[in-house]
Amino acid sequence: MALPFTIKVLGSGTSAGVPTIGCYCSVCTSADPRDNRLRPSILVCYEGRNVLIDTTPDFRAQALRIRLDHLDAVVFTHSHADHIMGLDDVRPFNFRQKGQIPIYAAPDTMAAIQRCFPYIFDGIKKESNVPQLDARLIDGAPFDLFGLEFLPVPIVHGSQTIYGFRFGAAAYLTDHSDIPPASMDMLRDLDVLFLDALRYKPHPTHSTVERSVKTAGDLRARRTFLTHICHDLGHERAEGLLPPHVRLAYDGLELQVA
Ligand SMILES: [Zn+2]
Ligand SMILES: [Zn+2]
Ligand SMILES: [Zn+2]
């Protein structure tokens, strides 16, 4: 029997977040809380465990907002700033838990994280506290986290190939411009699917609303949620134009997956 879990959307916004600094468009000034989008991340919760996908520059605010009081592992999709720059803010969990936190990433992603945060990984004793992390490399093989299997799903993000992840009957595919056929085959029989949908206009490294609605139709997950959204999409209006099985993710959205 599959392990039941809860997915908490910590951030549904693109790299700049919404509102975007210096912009006063109708979405950036909207009173609808769903138009407030922190940088993209989800938390997967099961059997008392909390597994985080990506540490955004907003991680501290995201953790405070949901009163996160322990963190068991972090899984990284790729090394762009909007997905890693909050890593230093895991320190309070090290203090509370008195131990290392495992982080999982592909070799190129881990190397970039180690370049961005050399003081975490250089092994030199510091005068003050730094995150205590156990860096674990992933390849394409599935890996177990506390009884739930995480399957890396290769996705194309402009000129790079990065990872989305499938776990149980859910999959989280943030930043992508294309999903190779072999990866599409890894995404059958899903209850919940997250797909990148930056905006309506084409973008070299991101999917669009139109493209991801088509992907949702091809994959036929029971529920598909669009994420990594920029200020071109106001929640209410954009969602009104979508088919019923496709919705916009928003910060604070929680989904139960059996
Ligand atoms: Zn991104
Ligand atoms: Zn704006
Ligand atoms: Zn990216």
Structural account:
By secondary structure, the chain is α/β, with parallel strands linked by helices. It has helices spanning 59-65, 81-84, 91-97, 107-116, 118-121, 181-184, 209-219, 235-240; strands at 5-11, 41-46, 49-53, 73-75, 101-105, 133-137, 143-145, 148-157, 160-167, 170-173, 192-196, 223-227, 246-248, 254-257. Strand 12 (223-227), helix 8 and strand 13 form a beta-alpha-beta unit. The model has no long low-confidence stretch (mean pLDDT 97). The structure holds zinc ion (3 copies).
What attributes does this structure have?
single chain, 258 residues, alpha/beta, seven-stranded mixed β-sheet
Biggest sheet: strands, sense, closure?
A: 7 strands, mixed
Shape: globular
> Which structural class do you get from the secondary structure elements?
alpha/beta
β-strand number = 14
Q: What percent of the residues sit in helical stretches (DSSP H or I)?
A: 10-25%
Backbone CA Rg: 18 Å
Relative strand content: 25-35%
Bound molecules: zinc ion
Oligomer: single chain
Give the helix tally. Answer: 8
Strand arrangement within the widest β-sheet reads 6-5-4-3-2-1-14
- What string gives the helices and strands in order? EEEHEHHEHHEEEEEHEHEHEE
Mean pLDDT: 97
Detail the poorly predicted runs: none
Termini Cα gap: 9 Å
Secondary structure topology:
Blueprint: E1 5-11, E2 41-46, E3 49-53, H1 59-65, E4 73-75, H2 81-84, H3 91-97, E5 101-105, H4 107-116, H5 118-121, E6 133-137, E7 143-145, E8 148-157, E9 160-167, E10 170-173, H6 181-184, E11 192-196, H7 209-219, E12 223-227, H8 235-240, E13 246-248, E14 254-257
Parallel strand pairs: 3-4, 4-5, 5-6, 10-11, 11-12, 12-13
Antiparallel strand pairs: 1-2, 1-14, 2-3, 7-8, 8-9, 9-10
Bound molecules: zinc ion (3 copies).
One zinc ion (ZN) binds at residues 15, 40, 80, 82-83, 175, 228.
